[in-house]
From TrEMBL:
Residue ranges constituting the Thioredoxin domain according to the UniProt record: 35-147
GO BP term, pick one: cell redox homeostasis
CC terms in the record's Gene Ontology section: cytosol
Protein name (record): Thioredoxin
Length: 148
């Protein structure tokens, strides 16, 4: 890897693709279109409008929390997932997918139970884990999924 290797980073605010030198991923870059920070230290909300950009177009692997508001274990795990974001960025993007609001995406991934965590890189699912986890386990599992 050289200094000039660019990575496609999808803006969490407007889903525009930004090219960022690999060496500057963690340098607090902003979106060229809307000037929002490219990494916020928090999970973003995945919808049909931004899902494919983050799951398929981005060079940053996407860690998805498939959840629903009626799911107690999902709500219990939510703070742990949020706390994992600053530990995994900028090597991963964390996003939450409401399986009730975005049924088509949940169906595409054949989500059987929630919470389910999945890692998707360039459109390909590389890991999946059902059940709630504490922050430390989320971080360790996600890092192993992307070989870090
Ligand atoms: Zn933007």
């Amino acid at each position: 890897m050289t200094q000039n290797d660019a990575r496609i980073v999808i803006c969490p605010a407007c889903a525009t693709a930004n090219r960022v030198p690999a060496a500057k991923l963690g340098a607090g870059g902003k979106c060229g279109k809307c000037a929002s920070p490219l990494f916020t230290g928090a999970p973003l909300t995945l919808t049909s409008a931004n899902f494919d950009a983050h799951a398929s177009r981005s060079d940053i692997p996407l860690l998805i929390d498939f959840w629903a508001s009626w799911c107690g274990p999902c709500r219990q795990m939510a703070p742990a997932f949020t706390a994992a974001a600053p530990q995994l960025e900028p090597h991963m993007r964390l996003g939450k997918l409401d399986t009730e609001a975005e049924r088509a995406i949940a169906a595409r991934y054949a989500i059987q139970s929630i919470p389910t965590l999945a890692v998707v890189s360039k459109g390909r699912e590389v890991a999946r884990q059902a059940g709630a986890m504490p922050t430390s386990a989320i971080v360790a599992w996600a890092k192993s999924a992307i070989g870090r």
